[in-house]
Amino acid sequence: MTLSARPLLPLIALIGSSVALTGCNQDDQSAFAPTCPPVEILSQAADFYQYDGHGLDAGSLVTHAGMSGLTGNCEAGPKKSVRSRLSLAVVVERGPASDGKDIVLPYFVAVLRDGKILEKKEFDIPVSFAGNQSTVSLRTPVRIIDVPASPDLQQTNYTLKVGFQLTHEQLDYNQTHLRPAKFTAHTN
Hints:
Elements: E1 39-41, E2 47-51, E3 61-77, E4 81-94, E5 103-113, E6 116-127, E7 135-139, E8 143-148, E9 158-164, H1 168-177
Parallel strand pairs: 1-9
Antiparallel strand pairs: 2-3, 3-4, 4-7, 4-8, 5-6, 5-9
């Protein structure tokens, strides 16, 4: 599975539909594992900032979350498909303007074919801070995404894009205030 950094298509963080997530049906699998679709954490959607509405200074920060990594694998899936399993590593910091309550962070997985969004699914990451804990590191549950396998098992024209589901204001903030993240490519 490949993890790389490419320029963000701003629409990807804002377009909605549904990803091909399936249960575990092991019938009709291929004899050989196909090539995994490339997976990308979108650099401009890798950070989630929430402010209290009184400004964009450090004292108004409610929470900041950042995607710090992605793990996964893939194998031949049912009915000539590629089954990818993905889990994100996320670091969440509570800001000075936090009311101390639990928070929920929205993120998405989008399936693209030849650069066009086919489907997109949003998920939630529930976050709880114990006592006066200010930082939480966590891993999301594994998500299963099936995409059709190419007739040539060494090629795929599908890619998976991952990021926080941001509002227009959050995306604008990330684009104007943050340096794009550089993610390292890994192959499993």
